[in-house]
Write a structure and sequence with these properties.
Distance between the termini: 29 Å
Radius of gyration: 24 Å
Strand content: 35-45%
Length: 565
């Protein structure tokens, strides 16, 4: 993914890139003619799985890196200004996924990530890399921050605890981390000019770096490196944002020379209204089959993952398996593995109910910038004490966010507002560079429920509108249920609607529909966001005793039965 002020912006790439260098094309229509690679399928000895449909997850998880360790798959994604950063999902079949942790516990890269005098919107955790080192049974996450430095975090379990191993004074842009069969660590990185760095045996320092490839002008921009060693050959998987995927191959070692082929270009994707699948990673099943997990632009919801099988030509090039000339809307499911593992393992659902039990947040939650940890707690509900005095939600600390489930879903919170103070604002938002919310306002000792719209940012992520109240109603008692329904099918004019209840059963619509924006430049999609901030003085608090994320047709009972997130 390209930073907008970078020399090669994503928009420029789309305008200037015209195709593949002559003589290097691998037509996507060749999928049917591709043969299995010598590293085999082996799938006959494994249990067939049910067909799956794309997207495999309809939530915003972009800039994919995917690996397999034993019989488990792990998937890392970008989070920009959300904290903790770099979420990790786990699956045992490539189709059903659960959120299990974050590689970057806190965005401690400067005060802007604390909303302290400056802001870090659309910075932070960009395309990064996840790898596993068998020699020390350790997971490694690597990513650059703010075009300045590269950070490496490690953990012996994806659930954590993750800690910073080192800081390298080179910015490995859109990096792919490879741990070679001899345990040497290499990093591929760059935009248009692709380089490979070798790290020290302990992974703390750079030993050498060398440019290995320059993208032909006929292709334009290539970035989003993923680095592999397959059958003795070295491959660097690269994206052309936002409509192509290419691969470099070296038979002579990690520093090349490399030759290039096109994997896909302007390929029809499986999500109606969505973009071209691109910028993901290759992964091999225990049975030897290969898959490509990519994402498609699907705003206003963000960038969502799609999965397709991959075959290999006899001379060692990957080819995506197509359905009627397009990335398939469905495919036969990946083999489930040996007979002993044929019964799918259960994973925690990405929808359902959270009652904020225990003493920590579940991995489905991320804060807008770093929180003030003295101003929140979890135990029999989520307590949010006001952490910021502001009239601008974009400056308010301790705003807790959750990805929206597509294509449409509803989020509901139960809110105890009895400890709010005059000037406090608390509620549930649709949060992005244009936002709206439903919530409780406390003024002059009186409480009302309000729907507010018109919260906006400009293209430099400065606030241009703090919102206007479009509807309100009186509130009695100490509890209220707030609900937001979001339609995040790709396209323009998608609505969000707001309602409230005083008994948890009968909901009253409040205010007009909010039209969500679908410009890609904020990169992250809309999120549900729980907030509580002060406009006068700190000291108030609210307690969220329940959050429910449900899809259409689910009753509250069905959502509860789907499990705790």
């Amino acid at each position: 993914m390209s930073w907008l002020s970078h020399e090669h912006s994503r928009r420029k790439a789309l305008v200037t890139a015209t195709g593949l260098v002559a003589g290097a094309a691998l037509p996507v229509s060749a999928a049917a003619r591709a043969t299995a690679s010598p590293h085999g399928s082996g799938a006959a000895a494994h249990t067939a799985a049910a067909p799956y449909t794309n997207p495999v997850i309809w939530q915003d998880f972009a800039d994919i890196d995917i690996i397999r360790v034993g019989n488990a798959y792990y998937y890392s994604a970008s989070t920009m200004h959300y904290s903790p950063g770099a979420p990790i999902l786990r699956s045992y079949d490539l189709v059903n996924w659960e959120l299990v942790g974050h590689s970057v516990p806190v965005l401690d890269f400067g005060s802007k990530y604390d909303l302290n005098g400056s802001r870090g919107y659309v910075r932070g955790i960009w395309a990064s890399s996840l790898a596993y080192r068998p020699s020390n049974r350790t997971f490694y996450w690597l990513g650059q921050i703010d075009f300045a430095k590269t950070y490496i975090y490690t953990a012996t379990s994806v659930e954590g605890t993750w800690s910073r191993l080192t800081t390298i004074n080179n910015a490995y842009y859109d990096a792919g981390l490879l741990i070679d069969s001899d345990d040497t660590m290499y990093v591929s990185y760059g935009n248009t000019t692709i380089s490979v760095a070798q790290l020290s045996p302990d992974g703390r320092d750079q030993v050498r770096t060398q440019q290995v490839f320059t993208t032909p002008s006929s292709v334009g921009t290539l970035e989003g490196s993923r680095f592999y060693k397959i059958n003795g050959n070295y491959y660097i998987f690269l994206t052309r944002p936002a409509n192509g995927q290419y691969i470099l191959k070296s038979t002579s070692g990690p520093f090349g020379p490399y030759t290039m082929r096109q994997v896909l270009l302007d390929l029809r994707g499986p999500v109606s209204g969505g973009g071209v699948p691109h910028q993901g990673g290759l992964v091999q099943t225990p049975g030897g089959a290969w898959y490509y997990m990519a994402f498609v632009d699907a705003y206003p919801g963000g960038r969502i993952p799609v999965l397709a099988p991959v075959a290999w030509t006899s001379d060692g090039w990957p080819v995506v398996q197509l359905v009627n000339g397009a990335w398939g809307a469905s495919y036969p499911g990946p083999a489930a593995g040996p007979a002993a593992l044929a019964t799918p393992r259960q994973v925690a659902p990405l929808t359902g109910v959270d009652t904020f039990d225990g003493t920590s947040l579940k991995p489905t939650w991320e804060w807008n910038h770093n929180p003030d940890n003295t101003k929140w707690s979890v135990n029999n509900g989520l307590t949010l004490r006001t952490a910021t005095v502001t009239n601008d939600l974009y400056w308010a600390r301790n705003t807790l966010t959750h990805r929206i489930q597509g294509p449409t879903s509803t989020a509901t919170i139960q809110l105890d507002h009895s400890a709010m103070r005059d000037g406090d604002r608390a509620g549930l938002a649709l949060l992005r560079d244009s936002s709206a919310w439903i919530g409780v306002k406390r003024d002059s000792g009186a409480t009302r429920v309000a729907m507010v719209s018109g919260l906006t940012m400009d293209s430099n992520w400065n606030t241009t509108g703090t919102g206007a109240e479009l509807a309100s109603g009186a509130v009695q008692g100490s509890r209220i249920w707030l609900r937001v329904t979001a339609d995040i099918r790709p396209g323009t004019g998608r609505p969000g609607t707001f309602s409230y209840s005083t008994d948890g059963t009968n909901f009253i619509r409040l205010g007009p529909s909010f039209t969500m924006g679908n410009d890609w430049r904020f990169f992250m999609g809309y999120r549900y966001a729980i907030f509580n901030y002060a406009t006068q003085a700190l000291g108030g608090s609210v307690n969220v005793t329940r959050f429910e994320l449900a899809t259409p047709g689910q009753s509250q009972a069905q959502a509860s039965a789907s499990g705790v997130m």
